Predict the structure of Lantibiotic ABC transporter.
Amino acid sequence: MVKDIDVRDTRHCETTALGVLLRHEGIDLSEPMLFGLGSGLSFVYWDSKSMGFPFLGGRVKPFELTRNLAATLGLDLQAAETTSARKAWQNVAVPLDAGRPVGLQLDSFHLEYFTTKVHFGGHVVALYGYDDERAHLIDTAPQGGAVTTGLDSLARARAQRGPMTARNRSFTLTAPAAPVSPYDRIVPAITTCAHAFLNPPIANLGHRGIEKAARQVPKWLERTEDPGTDLPRAAALMERAGTGGALFRNLYRDFLAECTGLLDSSRLRTGHRLYAEAATLWTEVAGLVEAAGGAGDAGGVGGAGDAQDLVRAGTLLDDLARVEREAMAELVAL
């Protein structure tokens, strides 16, 4: 067991694990600051014929935030992947036995404590101890904070293959002898994030992706055979499933608010104001999507849904594309 592990009231899995690993290295930053310094905010509208229903994502792909944060703060990131179960365990047992917590990317479906049994291969936890039967993990506060799962279930979660999974990925972070001041890296982290958001390589990413969502969401009732299940689930993924609320916009709003207390910049204050507006709008969109799935028979399962709620959601998404584009245009010029 790694000693003196500090459990916090955190909402997003990757920043939860990063906080555990960095505090062990003597670097104590808020969850929004970790998210922002990792240039974590993004947007993706993801749909394909093989998917049961479209997916709206509000952050960079799994593990990219960790790579970004390590580069920003000059941390030594040691990551390993393997298809061997024996090697996968060795990769975590060695640092744990040396007193160092380890980050893991895995599929949350197999974790015994997890409250929602769906496959999500981009989940990240911090492993800080084990015994002959169980692994001791730190997850988000809604999932229990300090939790345990059986070693067999952990092995299945790590080895699962599918969308967003990695091959038994584990990682450690080590602070440099002369640590970089996180607050000196705020502007580069913000401008990197803003530039990527404003210049997406394809039309379903960044502000262009939100514009695409504005066109597609009003047609979602045609896209589903079970609106009473698919629409509330989509809303939950936006608002409650480890996003910190408002599809990660609450986290980025709070990051920018913290930055305004450290840097005197009218552009930064404008960006914060606009992302506070965006966070409110995203919560409204999630509410409309959920309401659209709840119309129909008792409980909404198999119900016809309310197309007007989705039309209103599309209108708000048009507003969001504009608001976030304006915010990032201010922030990229810091």
